[in-house]
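Look at one such:
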Amino acid sequence: MVYEGVAITKLRPLLLQDSWFRSCATAFQDTLLTYGKVRRLVDGEALYSRMTQLEQSLFCVLEGALCVGSTDTNGLASMLVYLEPFHWFGELPLIDGQPRTHDALADGTTYVLCVPEDRLIRWLDSHPENWRDLTRLSAYKLRVAYKVLGEPGTLLQLVARRLWLAAHGFGSRTEDPRNILRLSQEQLAFMLGVSRPSVHKALRMLELDGIIKQHYRKIEVIDLAALAASAKYLS
C-alpha cells in the first residue's frame, strides 16, 4: 500500500486488526487518526534514538518492521523486540515524561504512523477518562514482560516462547495472532543473547516436529498450540 496522499482516516480498517486499538473508545481512535502523520523510513533509518531525544510521539507500525534495541559501550548490539504491523508503541515517555531507553531502526522500507505528544496530551487532559486507554497499552506489555523475564527454560523453550510472543505482537495481538513472522535467526539470537548456531539448532528441532517452517528471513508458524506446548507455560 502507498501511504503518500492517503487520508489517515482510511487507515482505520487496518488499525482495527490490533486488539488494543480496537478496544479503545471511538473518540480516542478518532483522535489518533486525526492527529497522526505517516512517516516513511528507509532500511536502517532511525525512527528515534536514545541519543537524540526529539519530540515524543505515540507510534504504530503500518508497513515494514522496526528493530528496537540498544548498543552497549563495547559496541555489542542487542534487540529487545521486533515490531511489525500494527503494533502501537512509544507510550511510556508520554506517561512518565522520561527519555527513551532504546533505539528504533527500520528493517527495510517502513511506514510508521506518528501521533505527536503535544496534541495528544492536550486532548487527553481535556478527556481524562481516555487516559485509561493509553495506560492499558503499557499494561499489556508489562504483563508480557512478566511472562518472559526470569523464566527458566531450555534454549528450545526460550526460542519457542519468543516466537509465540512475536506471533501475538508482544502483547498487542491477543486475538488473531499472525503466522508469518519476519524474523531471521540472527535477530532471534540478538533477542535472546545467544549464538546464531544455537538458535538454528532450536529452530531446526521445531521444524522437524512440524511446528514451524523456515523461509528466508521469515518463520512460518504451522501449529500455534504445539508452539505454546514447546514453550511449556504459554497459552
The longest strand covers residues 57-63. The mean pLDDT is 84. Residues 131-148 form the longest helix (18 residues). The radius of gyration is 18 Å.
